[in-house]
Amino acid sequence: MRFAKDGVPVIIAALFLGLILVAIGWLLNNSASILLYLVAVFISGFTLFFFRDPERNVPEGPYVLAPADGKIISIGPVREEKYLVGSALQISIFLSVMDVHVNRYPVSGKVEHVTYHPGKYLVAWHPKASELNERAEFGIRHESGIRVFFRQITGLVARRIVFHTREGDNVKAGDRFGLMKFGSRMDILLPDDTELLVKAGDRTVGGETIIAKLD
What we know:
Number of strands: 13
Radius of gyration: 19 Å
Order of helices and strands: HHEEEEEHEEEEEEEE
CATH architecture of the largest domain: Distorted Sandwich
Largest sheet: 8 strands, antiparallel
Distance between the termini: 37 Å
Helix content: 10-25%
Strand content: 25-35%
CATH topology of the largest domain: Glucose Permease (Domain IIA)
């Protein structure tokens, strides 16, 4: 099993804490020991589970792929003035703590826009989360000339986003670019005339689910 490299420090800390709890339980050697053992197993197991990073079968073609695992909680028209500069379709994906939290590029192309915004920690499905929460925003121009805008958004539980993307990078659809820690949301915005292949309520697999086809 592969694990997200950005999660390694947390994994090490969780395993170390688990060992401490096991050692305390062994020293106590009483009825409380079983509880300590169970807590150690839960902390270690959940941390390893959360930071799992499975390989994905990335479709080849002029597609917009889901940048994250999760559930599509809304699709609707918006105005986007930072990169697309105009009307757009926004697809919002909610990631529960049970979903893989490694994020992947939705399209191949050149990165033209990267910004980071500190902010609040509203629940990820709140309508204003994309404007008020801590977030990182990215714009990629596909080789067809179509521009795609997407953002990592923290939620009530997620308190940190990590990304490894800079303006000027040439990227490939499906490649890993970042991580959101412990429950969050991903928005992807496309030109408003894009024909979507998904609907609200669908579940997505990052790097595999085709959201739309670029003409």
